[in-house]
Structure formats: C-alpha cells, structure tokens
C-alpha cells in the first residue's frame, strides 16, 4: 500500500536479535542500525523484526492510486472496495470490513519501532477527478526504552462516473516502553471511510457509449467506521537482564514474565438510500421510500499469561494464557431495531517456540474455547522453518506451515435483518485445514510456494443477499512462483499463480500473473536516481462476484465472466536525497483496446496520470 512506509523483507528472527537496516550508526566500533521495527506474534511471545526501507529506493511500489501488485481488483476508482484474486473470502461478524481491509490501519498492520534518530515522512499525491491523498509518519525514541509514533492518512476523490465520491481518514498513534523489569506496548487505530454508491451500470451495454453511462443508484451512501486498540503489559519475574548495548537497540528478553493484554475492536456500517429501487435491490422488506440501515459490532478481549524462555541460548519459549472474549452486536433500520445482544466466551491459549532442532525452528500455538457460544472452537498453527546453504554459496530458506481451525458462526452471522437483507439460521461450524510449503533462494531471488486449502461449511453471500453455507467441501490448490532478475540496470519482477478450485460457493481465476520491468539510471554523480518502467496484472476469465453496496460485501454469481485482459501502468520514479517523486500513467491497455468490466457492472476508469511526492526527514 502507498501509505506503508516500510518494506517487510525479513522473516521471523530470534527472540532477542535484530536485523540490519540500510542506515547504520557507529557505536563502540560496531555498526548498529539507526532504526528497526518489529511486531509481536499472535500471543506476544516473539518479536518478528523487519527491515525499514528508509531510502524508499523503489518508490513505484508505493503507488498512490489503485495498486495492482497486490493481486486484487477494485470497483475501478480510487479507494474503492477491492477483491483479492488469490484468496477465499471468509466472513466474521465484521464482514463489511473485508472489501476495505487493505486500506485500514489495524493492530495487525502496525509496527513498533526503535529509532536512534527521529524519522518523519510526508507524502502527497493527486490525480484527475479531484483525487488527493496526504500521508504523515513519524517515530522517535525519547529515551533508550521509550518510543512513540504516529501515522495519519487522509484522501478524497470524486471519481470519473456519477456518484463515485469517496473520502477517508486514518490515524494510528502508538507508544512502547521496554525496560529491564517492565514493558508496555499500546496502539490505537481509527479508520473512517465514506463512499457514494452507484451500484454500477444500469445496463452493461452502456460501456460502449461513454457519454451515456447511467448508474443504478443516485442517492445511496455508505459510511464505515473501524477502530482497534491494544494495551499490552509484561512484568519481569526474574533477574534484571544483562545488556551490553547501552543504546538499547538490542531489546531485553525476560526469562520469566507475567503479562496482561487487552484488545479492542469496534466496527460500524451505515447505509442510506433515499430512493431505493426494486429494479436494483433483490428485496425491500420494510420501507420502499428510504433505506437507513446500521450494523454495530464490538469485541473486547482480555488475556493474562505467563511466559518463560529456557536453555543456555534461550532456544525454548513457552507461553500459557487464559482469557475472556466479550462480543456484542446491534442492527436496525428506520423502522426496526433488533435488541442488542451480548456474548461471553472463555478460552485457553498456549505457544511453544523451539529453535535449533537439527537446525530447524518450530513454532506452535493454539487457542481453545471452553465456554460460551464458541465452546469447542479452536485454532492451531504449526510452522517449521530452516535457513541453510546449498552448495556452500546459495543461501536458502525453507518453511512448512500447517493450520487447522473450527469456528462456530454466531452473532450477525446467524441472525440479521435490514431493509434489503434477512437471514435467521443456526450455523454449522466452519472447519478449515491449510498446508503450505515455501522455499526462498537469496542468491537467485526466487520464491516458490505451494499450498492446499480445505474448507467445510463455507459461508458465502448469494445475489439475493442471503448468507448461506456451502453443503459440499471447498478445495483450493495454489502454486506461486516469483523471480526477480537484475541485469545491470534493468530489473524484471515476475510472479505467476496457478489455482485449482473445487467449490459451489466461490470462484477464483485459474491463473494470475503480475509482471514489472524497469530501468534504473542515475545522474549528476549519482545524486539523482530514477526508475522508469511498466507493470501489469493479468488474470484468466472467471465468474467474479458482484458487489452489494447495501451490505458492503462481494456476492457469489455464476452468470457474468470477466478477465482475460491486462491492467497496465507506466511509471517514472525519481530519488533526490530525501525527496522521492512518482509520475504514473494508469490504463495503458484501456487506451489501446477500450474499457472492460473490472467487477461485474463496474467499468474500468479512463486512462489518467497520477503524481506523488514524498519528503523524508531522518535527523
């Protein structure tokens, strides 16, 4: 995403080690990284460190408008709902969050930092149809133990077609304190998205007449509000850790600790239409003159845990915890309100991380619910990985992952009512198994992965906005190959995914491929560096789901096929000291061959030029 100011280019590291970033600092004759970032794994046992692209060398990867390198399709305009081409939709009580998840600040997408020097970055972009976006990022250490930071993103646009206005506000502050005897990590994410909804073309044949494109809806709007928070504390129950690095780049690890974590998630979806049309909506249950639907969901999760690391080299980490999950929902329209409902679940969780088992690292964690509507639900994650050298020169990484889970749908997934949708059904538990193998060659810049997914009782929406469960099983086999090739000043980035899907409730394209090629040059004694190139996404034809704005979801259909055409952009990115500039032309194929549907009933946008500039302050 364009707002992301970092590139994840390192896998999980040791419990208390770090990776090296691009910028270094001399301390006691040893080079130390100026800035590093990490995130906690699911149960807060292990810090996973990532490299920070402080130079933003490949600025074209931070695309300001409609990024296509994520194997996703949108409705064809800036900041529109998007659909993943290589993932099966899974629905939680916050189901209306799915089409916007790649734009949100959340607990899972936030990092904690250790910054020897303050890092600030301001980015601004604009394009046709009044599309503008501004992003701000800042982090710094106020002492060797205390760090704080802030991310802000604001954007707006009118869109090319009628009723495509959009605006978004995102803010995510955080603070972290890692002392010898006590640690605290806190973050908060706020996301507000507002869209005018046009429902797509009233007739698909109108795509041939650009001046006569009439949309289904003219008075519909949606507003989405997503908030998340995390407050994590750890108390050292053992001795004060010995740390030679007094600048505290190497964060302490407690041999024995007690901890408490509380997480918060609140979602709200508002949908209005002052002139609901029976020609567009499959149902109008209550009011044919206006629609005013609201869904509100809340989750609060409390966990207390004990953790310990064992072994002379801290090769073993163990985590044990118990917790309580509180959930509630409320839904209503202009004439009807369902009583607010509450649920309480209790769970147990555990984790084992074992390093250096014949050179392998094992990570296992699980969560079991033993009381409440989720009783008998569970999630189990297992991963085995190894770094090795092939033929003494080729650095390789191998990883094998196996996940299994069982989840009982409840809350709004079992009962819901609005002006355009209704369901009331006892749900069977959704069972899921996932097996994936990955191998990475550092020398050849090659990534190869293969996976098998099995799901039973999959939830899906049909065109009538009914939430159903698939009676048969779903099987998905995926093979993905990526190769980055550098030939002097030319870089090729090629990725292809093959998918074989057996399902009566979801469709995916058989092939998806993303390719880019760019030329890197420098001028004025290498003070100015440029990347000039093109990138493109192609996917085979498939029955893409339709977008249903009154619920904010993509719904299954098997009548209209799209695909078998590319989406191509051309770009020029320029780097001069702390300044990065990007000029991008979107829609090369549209310019040459005309428009297609990117999602059923939603036509592609006309070719347009986008401009972005980023200024970085790294004092």
List its traits.
1 helix, 22-stranded antiparallel barrel, mainly beta, three-stranded antiparallel sheet, Maltoporin, Chain A, globular
Describe this structure in words.
The protein has 619 residues and is mainly β. It has a single domain, classed as Maltoporin, Chain A, CATH 2.40.170. It is 1% helix and 56% strand. It has one helix spanning 588-593; strands at residues 24-27, 30-33, 35-40, 47-50, 72-74, 82-84, 112-115, 119-127, 131-141, 146-157, 166-178, 182-197, 220-236, 256-273, 291-310, 316-332, 341-357, 360-371, 378-390, 394-407, 415-417, 422-424, 430-441, 446-456, 459-461, 467-469, 474-487, 490-502, 511-523, 528-539, 546-548, 553-555, 565-576, 579-586, 597-599, 602-603, 608-618. The protein is globular and about 70 Å long. The two termini are 25 Å apart.
Could you write a compact summary of the structure shown?
By secondary structure, this protein is mostly beta strands. Helices cover 1% and strands 56% of the residues.
Write the layout of secondary structure elements.
Elements: E1 24-27, E2 30-33, E3 35-40, E4 47-50, E5 72-74, E6 82-84, E7 112-115, E8 119-127, E9 131-141, E10 146-157, E11 166-178, E12 182-197, E13 220-236, E14 256-273, E15 291-310, E16 316-332, E17 341-357, E18 360-371, E19 378-390, E20 394-407, E21 415-417, E22 422-424, E23 430-441, E24 446-456, E25 459-461, E26 467-469, E27 474-487, E28 490-502, E29 511-523, E30 528-539, E31 546-548, E32 553-555, E33 565-576, E34 579-586, H1 588-593, E35 597-599, E36 602-603, E37 608-618
Antiparallel strand pairs: 1-2, 3-4, 3-7, 5-6, 8-9, 8-37, 9-10, 10-11, 11-12, 12-13, 13-14, 14-15, 15-16, 16-17, 17-18, 18-19, 19-20, 20-23, 21-22, 23-24, 24-27, 25-26, 27-28, 28-29, 29-30, 30-33, 31-32, 33-34, 34-37, 35-36
